Every structure is written in structure tokens, then in C-alpha cells.
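Hi Y.,

Following your request, here is the sequence exactly as I used it, all 396 residues.
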Amino acid sequence: MWWCLARSPLRQRGLGVAFSSLSVAFARCRKQAPARRSLSSQPGLHEVFSMPALQRFLEQRQREGLRGGSWPELAARIRLLRDKEQELRDTERLAREDENEDLRMLAEKEVVSCQEEISELKRQIVLLLIPSEETDKSDLIMEVTAGVGGQEAMLFTAEMFDMYQQYAAYKNWNFEILEYTPSDVGGLRHASANIAGHEAYQHMKFEGGVHRVQRVPDTEKKGRIHTSTMTVAVLPQPNEINLIIKPKELRIETKRASGAGGQHVNKTDSAVRIVHIPTGVVSECQQERSQIKNKEKALQILRARIYSIKLEEESRKRQTVRKIQIGSKGRSEKIRTYNFPQDRVTDHRISKSVHHIARFMLGEKLLDEMIQSLKEYADYEILMELVSENDPTRLR
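Below is the corresponding structure, written out as C-alpha cells. Let me know if you'd prefer a different format.
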């Protein structure tokens, strides 16, 4: 695919850009129900830059940049693109018409070089067009919770938590367990972890939602396939500027830890429960033996939950329509199915399936490729929304 052909300095910003079906963008902008299509049907860079709406948008930005507006770097790239496209047309004409065979061969090589430079300039332009989100550079807190399905759901939740821990190691991120509540049979009822590292939230934000597993449990004697679910919540970590919580807004309670833990559980009031009085948001932690450490972790979780609520409210106020392919990243949205009998993982937001579940659950290349596909689709929707908002003809 075109966005993987070269690596520009801008590409290192992590803003992968791909372009899914044009019919999806057209349907959204015309308020029609979109038709989902596979990844293989998405148009290339050339087709996208042939869109009249995008051409008008680029011309508008170039004029603004030339007048000293807020898009000088973009205007410079667009000007370079126009010059290089004219150079390509002249070189192609020379390759067709020159009678000297040596000159024609040289011109043909120049055509290939011009085409590569044009593709690179187009990639850079698209990267400049897509704005980065405030939270993309944030660390995050990930919470996993078993859903419907009893013990099988808890076993699947434990496997998912392990997968994300391994993915953090694969990406060289720091993974710190904040809370871990196991079940009696080796599964996991609920857990949370702090994940910190380069572009951690930018990658992980697409994992939030309901994950569904379909398989035959070990305890199933008749071979029937059971369906269970678990939920992932991905909460960006706020800094002191983004979110200020006053001490008087908190009610902090201590209690004895529950669950396995020997004498420590029975005799030490180490568990901490914190309530944010204005919002009613609650967080608890009993992971550590120290009450002080549990308080720190509970505050960390509380801040992330409150910040997530604040971001959701801001998003609703903007009334964004960018939910067709990527969805709302909400806790209630079913985003992915893990079908063990068919050895298949399907992401329902982009209708992409991969096989080899065991390899996918290792949290390495296959998971990373799925997340990259989601990022690319999201970037496409951002671009289409940006263009349509600034084009009075609405992508006609």
C-alpha cells in the first residue's frame, strides 16, 4: 500500500495515513448509510489527490499560506508538488517524443524518479493536514473487566491482559500493574495498568470497547461453542495542566484488603478507596502492602477516569461525525471477535480479519498491524471530515 513505500521525516511522527473506500466518505457527507468495504478496496494516493474537493482544499490552503496565513509549511509543500508535477509532464513528453534513444532512456528513469518524489510530497502534505490530538502523546491507564460468560469470560480477560502486557514489551513501553483481581480458577475479574512510552495512547486508544471470544471451553463436554466478552477501557493520563483536582473535592477511605494475601489481608488497613465528590467517580486500590502506595495508584486511576469523562464531554460538544468506521472507542461498543474454531480475529469497525489467533495473542506483529490499520482508517476519516467541513460543495 502506498503509505508504506517510503519513510519521510514527517512519517516518524507516527501519523500513518491510509484511505479507505471513497463511498464511505461520500455516504457520510451526504448523510446516507455507509457501505463497508475491505481494506483491499481502499483507493491509493493518486486517486485521493484526484478528488476535486481535496484539490480545492489544497488550493485554498496554498493561497492562505502565500498571504502569510497559518499554513506556510503546507503551502510550500503544495508549491513543490505543483512544480514536480509539471516537471513530470515535461519529462514524460520528452520520453515519448525524443528521437535520441539514449535521451529517451534517461527521461524514462527521470519519470520514475519524479513519480517517487511526487508520492513522497503527497504523503507529507496529508501528514501536515491531519491535526494531532491533544492526548496522542499521553501515557494511559488501561482497565480490563470480565463481561458475560462467567468463568470463561474471566479466563479470556486474563489472556487479553497478558496480550497487552506483551504488546507493551514489544513496543518498549513501561507496563505497571495498578490493580489485579483474579478469579478462583486462574482467570481475571478486573485489572488496570499504567502504560507509558512513545506514542502509547496513540496506538492503544483503538483497543477500547467490547472484545468477544467464541470457543469451546475446557469444561465443555459436548463440544458446544460458547460466546463470552470482556471490556477494555483506555484512559489517557492527564498532566497537571490538563486536569486540576482540589484536595477538598476528594473523600479518601481506608479499609482492610480482601482476597488472597495471608496475614497482611486480615490485619492491615492498606486498601484505599477515593471518591471524587463533584462527579461521583470512584477508584480503589489494594494491590500494594503499603497504604501510601495504594493511595498513589488509586489517585492515578481516578485522575484518568475524570479526564476521560472531560474529553468525552468536549467531544460531544464538537458534535463530530467521525464514528462510522472507527466508532466511539466507548466501553459498550463491540469492536472485535476472536473466533477460535475458525482461527480468526475480526475487527468489526474496518471489517478486517486475520488468522492465527495464537500468534495474534502474543501481542506482537499481528496485533501491531491491526492497530496500524485502525490508525490509518481513522486518519482517512479525519482528512475527509476536514476537507468536507471546508468545502462548500461537500465532496461533490
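The two ends are 26 Å apart (CA to CA).

Thanks again,
Q.
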